[in-house]
Design brief:
Among the domains are: 40 residues; 84 residues, N-terminal domain of TfIIb, CATH 2.20.25.80. The chain contains 13 helices and seven strands. Helices cover 49% and strands 10% of the residues. The protein is globular, with a radius of gyration of 23 Å. Strand 4 and strand 5 form a beta hairpin. It has 455 residues and is of the alpha+beta class. Bound molecules: zinc ion. The site of zinc ion has 7 residues, from loops. The structure holds a DNA duplex (16 and 16 nucleotides). Keywords: DNA-binding, Nucleus, Transcription, Transcription regulation. It holds the Pfam family WRKY. One of its GO terms (cellular component) is nucleus. Its main location: nucleus.
DNA sequence: CGTTTTTGACCGGCGC
DNA sequence: GCGCCGGTCAAAAACG
């Protein structure tokens, strides 16, 4: 394959590193007011996770609800304030003064916070806009000089062979990411040395292969982007991407192949992404003792989408799944976002800076096993499907931050063991609980992670 | 009995 | 041209 790519096909890898610090910052500040109260609950939950880790669904649902409440809290502030005020009035005169003083202070404080919050929010919006503009420009530039690759890197998403060179590249590149990702989300992150930090991401990579003769035409339409949004927006984004992908499909039927490779911790032979697949072949790859399995989408008769699944040879618990092509049909309800990722290909290319080829995309097992993406989910549709802007749920380091399910890494001894129950230690769970909340925002797309990948 | 998996044959690209 | 290799086909087997 590698040879193929080198020669016959041109691969453009565009990497946009989006860290959106602003957003994160804002988020943190904005949410802190509420999180402080909830942190305890979260931790408790984390503990629960420790013991019975298999009730992912359950937890997710709960946490999801929680999360929404959390979001609502901002609006609820006013009410809260008033209520407090009323309460104060009912207090005895003695205390009254003190209380009212405190109240005033608190109120002013709150107002201040609100203002700040708004400012930050605006900042975020601005940033997003800017980013989008940049993205567009980038696309334009890409158009213009697609012959001179900016950061052309050839990588393969699968196969033992491609782990060599790309790996280096990834490491260097990811070095940057880590530094960003770490501060961003993992404030409590402790495990980290570089290697581990690498895993921070749930990054998804997409490659576009252009048929030689189609280079020019297809190139024009291609824009690769990484975007990160607030996690709840991610859904919308994903959906948008899906929809976009589908529509564009009809217009522009797969004249280019997209590839998405996903790494997930998964014990089963394949991860259940909600799509229907028929196995049509199996081969042992050269460098890897583990056989590679080839599947074809059977959801619709003529669907060209294929996927290949192979265990990572470095860590057998990791399953590398590479999706290729674009579905010619809507995905079934309950299909994984991953499975649909390819549909985003035509419009948005996601590239993991880290270049997927080797390690960038890792999704916790539970995650990979039960992600529903709900194509056409009402929730998703609500969120604002038309933003042209968007992002891919599966993108970059920043996203990875968002999904940050990666935080935890432990010893290296856990190869081959990915216990049904949470194998990891407590502090990790702390983190995971937090991240799970984040993840939950993506609810239908991602599920609460119970295991994590480390490398 | 229809569908999926298994598995060796087959094919095309590529390097030598 | 030959052999290697990744990928696919398809007949047979397994499955439900
Ligand atoms: Zn399909």
């Amino acid at each position: 394959m590698s040879t193929k790519k080198k020669k016959g096909e041109k691969i453009k890898i565009m990497q946009v590193d989006l860290s959106l610090k602003m957003e994160e910052e804002q988020k943190r500040r904005g949410d802190d007011e509420h999180h402080e109260e909830e942190e305890e609950e979260e931790e408790i939950k984390a503990d629960e996770n420790d013991e019975g880790s298999d009730d992912d669904d359950h937890n997710v649902v709960e946490e999801d609800g929680e999360k929404r409440e959390d979001e609502n809290n901002k609006e609820g502030d006013k009410e809260t304030k008033r209520e407090v005020g009323q309460d104060a009035k009912q207090e005895k005169p003695m205390v009254d003064n003190i209380v009212s003083n405190e109240l005033c202070m608190l109120q002013t404080e709150m107002d201040r916070m609100k203002e700040e919050n708004e400012l930050l929010r605006k900042a975020v919006d601005r940033t997003m806009k800017d980013y989008y503009d940049l993205q567009m420009k980038f696309a334009a530039v890409q158009k213009a000089d697609h012959h001179q690759q900016r950061e052309p890197r050839v990588f393969l998403s699968l196969g033992g062979d491609d782990n060599r060179e790309p790996k280096r590249a990834r490491e260097t590149i990811e070095g940057d990411h880590q530094e960003q990702a770490k501060p961003l989300l993992l404030s409590n992150y402790r495990g980290g040395d570089t290697k581990e930090a690498k895993e921070l991401g749930l990054s998804l990579s997409l490659q576009t292969f252009e048929e030689p003769h189609e280079k020019d035409s297809s190139m024009k339409e291609l824009a690769s982007s990484w975007l990160t949004l607030e996690s709840n927006k991610l859904q919308a984004a994903a959906t948008a991407a899906e929809l976009a992908g589908i529509t564009s499909q009809s217009i522009n039927p797969a004249n280019r192949k997209t590839r998405v490779s996903v790494r997930a911790r998964c014990q089963g032979p394949t991860m259940n992404d909600g799509c229907q697949w028929r196995k049509y072949g199996q081969k042992v790859a050269k460098g890897n003792p583990c056989p590679r399995a080839y599947y074809r989408c059977t959801v619709a008769p003529g669907c060209p989408v294929r996927k290949q699944v192979q265990r990572c040879l470095e860590d057998m618990s990791i399953l590398i799944t590479t999706y290729e092509g674009t579905h010619n049909h809507p995905l079934p309800v309950g299909a994984t976002a991953m499975a649909s990722t390819t549909s985003a290909g035509p419009n948005y290319m996601l590239m993991s800076g880290a270049n997927s080829s080797s390690t960038s995309n890792i999704i916790p097992e539970s995650f990979s096993n039960q992600i529903h993406s709900s194509y056409l989910s009402p929730y998703l549709l609500n969120s604002s499907p038309n933003l042209p802007t968007l992002n891919s749920f599966a993108s970059s380091p920043s996203t990875s931050g968002i999904f940050d399910m990666s935080t935890n890494f432990q010893t290296h001894n856990m190869k081959y063991q990915w216990p049904a129950n949470n194998p990891f230690s407590s502090n990790k769970d702390e983190e995971s609980s937090k991240s799970s909340n984040l993840v939950v925002k993506l609810d239908e797309i991602f599920m609460h992670p119970d295991t994590f990948i480390r490398h």
